[in-house]
Design a protein that fits this description.
By secondary structure, the chain is α+β, with helices and mostly antiparallel strands. The chain has two helices and seven strands, in the order αβββββαββ. It folds into two domains: 88 residues, SH3 type barrels (Roll); 30 residues, no CATH class. The protein has a five-stranded antiparallel sheet. The longest helix is centred in the N-terminal third of the chain and has 11 residues. This is Chromo domain-containing protein. InterPro entries: Chromo-like_dom_sf.
Length: 120
């Protein structure tokens, strides 16, 4: 049984070669992929580095199932670092002024006013 699970995981995991990756849940990142940790030739974890800490920041080990490829396209590394920095921003809700839709709360749309931003 254990071998079945291992072979199933092995067939679905290929090494991510991209320099930058995203972490799930919540898709944190992008982050720099530093190293791939393999067991019997299969990626089981990655060492990644938070781009907001610069090149000297600590690396963290993350299970391979949580890592997704980030395709930077034509973005420079400094632009990617800016994206990573804005991902850490938090916004506070000033008020919710309207909603639409029917059914459960998770299926509705809300008009949210953010603290510190002008109403449009």
């Amino acid at each position: 049984m254990k071998e079945d699970a291992w072979s199933k995981a092995a067939s679905s995991r290929t090494e991510i070669l991209s320099r930058f990756v995203l972490l799930s849940p919540g898709w944190r990142g992008p982050m720099r992929r530093v190293n791939c940790i393999k067991q019997d030739g299969i990626p089981v974890a990655y060492e990644v580095q938070d781009l907001t800490e610069g090149r000297r920041g600590n690396t963290i080990k993350v299970d391979a199932a949580r890592v997704r490829k980030f395709n930077p396209g034509t973005l420079s590394e400094s632009q990617i670092r800016q994206i990573a920095a804005t991902a850490l921003d938090e916004y506070e809700i000033d008020r919710i002024s309207d909603d639409r839709g029917a059914g459960p709360v998770t299926k509705r749309e809300y008009l949210v006013h953010w603290l510190g931003f002008e109403d449009d």
